[in-house]
Every structure is written in structure tokens, then in C-alpha cells.
Here is the input.
Amino acid sequence: MSAHALTSPVPPAPPALRLHPLRRLVPSEFFCVLYGVELRDVLEKVESGDFYPAFNLSTNAKGYRRRIHLWRGVVETYAPGRPMPKFELDRVIAGVLPPLGVADPSKATVRASDLCMRWSCTRPRPMMLVRACELREVGKHDLARESPRISRDSIVAFMRRRAL
Here is the structure.
């Protein structure tokens, strides 16, 4: 890094977001690393509605131990000092989930492993949310060979409840 970069009052431009295109939600910590900002500043912007929509993917709806994930569009359009556009929640949720196709929405399911990829979360997270009765598992699965199926309706309802 050059001496000018260290002493310049203007921070360098952030690097390009290089995530797999299926990663639709980004952990707030990733945003902090990408843009070099403090987590408390990101959380303030989430609470004020500047980074709408963001989602709390924790088993706790409120409190200290929240897992805040920002929608990828918020991360990609962020520019320091510029106001953020507002995004429509239902369109964001539809873009986060796999395409519905011709399936009946009330019977459609999403594999937990696909949800992990799209939400950028660890494998146990969807099942933790199932055990907390935040998401609904559909059918039975072989723990050794299959990813659980999660009701699409329960995912949509969860994301609406947890939008910040």
C-alpha cells in the first residue's frame, strides 16, 4: 500500500463484491469488511431504515444476539454519503428465494442447503429456525443423505416478520 493511501483523507474505493450470484443475503460483518466501517454504524443504518431491507436470521427476534444480513442489492448500491434507494420487500423476498415455477405456492418447498447458500449462513441455521418454530419443515428426510425441505410459505412469512 502506498504512503499516499494511508494519509489520504478519502478512503480508497471498496473492492468489487465477488460472491456467488446465488448468495442473496450478506452478513453485516461482510459489509463491514468490504467497506471498512464499524458494525455499530451498520446496525444504526439498519435500525434507521437506511439499509432496508435487512433481515434478522437469529432464533431471537429481538435482543443482543441478532444475526443481521443485508440484502445483496443494498450492499451493491451503497455509496458513502449518498442516500440509499428504497426497495420493495416482496420483490426482494421473491428474488432471495429460488424461482417458484408452476408449483402451488402453498405446497412449494426449498431445500435447507439451498437456503443456506442464498442466505449466506451455516448449515445448522435453517434447522435451528425450524426447532424454534420460525420455519416449517415439510416431510421427513434421511439425515445422512438429504437436505430437509422447508415450506416456502413459512420462509416468506419469516422474512416478512424479520425484515428490518
User: Anything to note?
Assistant: The beta strands are 25-27, 54-56, 68-71, 109-111, 137-138, 149-151. Confidence is low (pLDDT under 50) at residues 1-8.
